[in-house]
Write a structure and sequence with these properties.
By secondary structure, this protein is of the alpha/beta class. It folds into two domains: 126 residues, 3-Layer(aba) Sandwich (Rossmann fold), CATH 3.40.50; 25 residues. It has five helices and five strands, in the order βαβαβαβαβα. A five-stranded parallel sheet has the order 2-1-3-4-5, with helices on both faces. α1 crosses α5 and α2 runs parallel beside α3.
């Protein structure tokens, strides 16, 4: 019996509650939604929840959106996560910084809710592809660890049955060409 794919989890981080609610209303039928009013609260959530989609404002008090994106991108648990950043229109410098930090998409403010829904649907597909890629990497790492353990066991067995270099007989001077 095939189990249904799990719904992705989206974390919406914005200090403006109305912005969080707008995004929530547009995506809650597509994924599980968690809200955070600050980067600090988002980091607490990310310690215990696997986040597949992050929506964050670029301009947050205290720890800004760029640092939150960097935090997410440096944690292996979130390799497959997709990151949206909302940023003011006409700020290419901010957009570039966010892309460099690891954002996948910049959504310029003010944005329309239907745009968020459309992007989320596309990103949910992208996120699933990323998760499959991450699973493949994890399988390859597990296989490499198994091979490493097998190699170690073979070396141990060989080490126990073969004489050590110090225990080997010295070369026979009559047959050893290097003694000439």
């Amino acid at each position: 019996m095939t189990e249904a794919p799990r719904k992705p989890t989206a974390l919406i981080v914005d200090d403006i509650e109305d912005q969080r609610k707008l995004i929530r209303r547009r995506i809650e039928h597509l994924c599980h939604v968690i809200e955070a009013p600050s980067s600090e609260k988002a980091r607490e959530i990310m310690r215990v929840v696997r986040v597949d989609i992050l929506f964050t404002d670029s301009n947050l008090p205290s720890l800004d959106g760029k640092e939150l994106v960097r935090t997410l991108r440096t944690d292996e648990r979130f390799l497959g996560a997709v990151v949206f950043v909302s940023a003011s229109a006409g700020r290419p410098d901010v957009h570039m910084e966010m892309f460099e930090a690891g954002a996948d998409t910049i959504v310029e403010k003010p944005f329309h809710g239907d745009l968020i829904r459309k992007i989320t649907q596309e990103v949910a597909t992208l996120g699933e592809e990323r998760r499959e890629h991450v699973k493949k990497i994890e399988r390859e790492r597990a296989q490499a660890r198994r091979k490493e353990r097998q190699t170690k066991r073979v070396r141990q067995v060989l080490g126990s049955i073969l004489p050590r270099r110090s225990e080997r007989l010295p070369p026979d001077s009559d047959t050893d060409p290097s003694s000439d």
